[in-house]
């Protein structure tokens, strides 16, 4: 029996990675299915090494389904990294189902007797469209990065660039939890902050202590 493993991702710690959870639950229910596990993380889709994604792949059984809201939640990867990820999915025989790719939904349907040819055609079409959407997602990522860099460069030239705003409330919460003796892993679990953010808070507090 195949199981459905949902993957939710947001790029930064100040974004809500669980935003689409309700949509995935409703989709699975409408398909007469139930989601067996949730894997949630705040990591860039342009990175191949994503702990929760790799844990999902490791924990899933052959023939299981990897469910995402959109293909770009799974990949904004370079073509080389996308091929590497596809190889891992293929080795585990995982099938990707994305809400924005209706041709992938047939992976949730029970196979019909004597319909192997139609299934093979749909699989081929789905792989082609999945590749196409992955390429589009990567292009969108690089285009946005380029526009962002251009905007920053222009703002710097005009003396208007002040850098990324610090989430003071989040930093204060992290500092309080660390002061209480919480481990970094526990702080991540409570705040959904990345380890790099926790590290910045620790280094900032150290710098303040030296100045004092």
Question: How would you explain this protein's 3D organization?
Answer:
The protein is an alpha/beta fold. It has two domains: 136 residues, Resolvase, N-terminal catalytic domain (Rossmann fold, 3-Layer(aba) Sandwich); 44 residues. Helices cover 54% and strands 11% of the residues. It has eight helices and four strands; from the N terminus they run βαβαβααβαααα. Strands 2-1-3-4 form a four-stranded parallel β-sheet, with helices on both faces. Strand 1, helix 1 and strand 2 form a beta-alpha-beta unit. The radius of gyration is 21 Å and the shape is globular. The mean pLDDT is 85.
Question: Secondary-structure map with pairings?
Answer:
Elements: E1 4-10, H1 21-30, E2 35-42, H2 51-59, E3 65-68, H3 71-74, H4 79-91, E4 95-98, H5 116-157, H6 168-179, H7 184-191, H8 195-211
Helix pairs in contact: 6-8
Q: What is the number of strand segments?
A: 4
First-to-last CA distance: 62 Å
The CATH class of the largest domain is: Alpha Beta
Shape-level CATH architecture of the largest domain: 3-Layer(aba) Sandwich
Number of helices: 8
Poorly predicted segments: none
The coarse silhouette is globular
Structural class: alpha/beta
What's the number of structural domains? 2
Report on the biggest sheet. Answer: 4 strands, parallel
What's the multimeric state? single chain
Strand content: 5-15%
Summarize the structure.
This protein is an alpha/beta fold. About 55% of the residues lie in helices and about 10% in strands. It has two domains: about 140 residues, Resolvase, N-terminal catalytic domain (Rossmann fold, 3-Layer(aba) Sandwich), CATH 3.40.50; about 45 residues.
């Amino acid at each position: 029996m195949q199981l459905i493993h949902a993957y939710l991702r947001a790029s930064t710690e100040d974004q809500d990675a669980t935003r689409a959870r309700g949509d995935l639950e409703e989709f699975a229910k409408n398909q007469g299915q139930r989601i067996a596990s949730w894997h949630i993380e705040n990591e860039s889709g342009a990175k191949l090494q994503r702990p929760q994604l790799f844990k999902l792949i490791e924990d899933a059984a052959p023939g299981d389904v990897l469910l995402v809201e959109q293909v770009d939640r799974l990949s904004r990867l370079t073509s080389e990294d996308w091929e590497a990820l596809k190889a891992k999915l293929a080795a585990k025989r995982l099938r990707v189902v994305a809400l924005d790719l209706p041709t992938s939904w047939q992976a949730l349907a029970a196979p019909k007797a004597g319909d192997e040819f139609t299934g093979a055609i749909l699989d081929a079409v789905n792989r082609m469209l999945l590749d196409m959407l992955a390429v589009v997602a990567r292009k969108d990522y690089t285009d946005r990065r380029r526009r962002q860099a251009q905007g920053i460069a222009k703002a710097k030239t005009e003396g208007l660039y002040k850098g990324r705003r610090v989430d003071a409330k989040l930093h204060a919460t992290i500092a309080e939890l660390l002061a209480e003796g919480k481990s970094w892993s526990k702080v991540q679990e409570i705040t959904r902050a990345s380890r790099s953010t926790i590290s910045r808070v620790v280094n900032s507090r150290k710098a303040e202590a030296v100045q004092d």
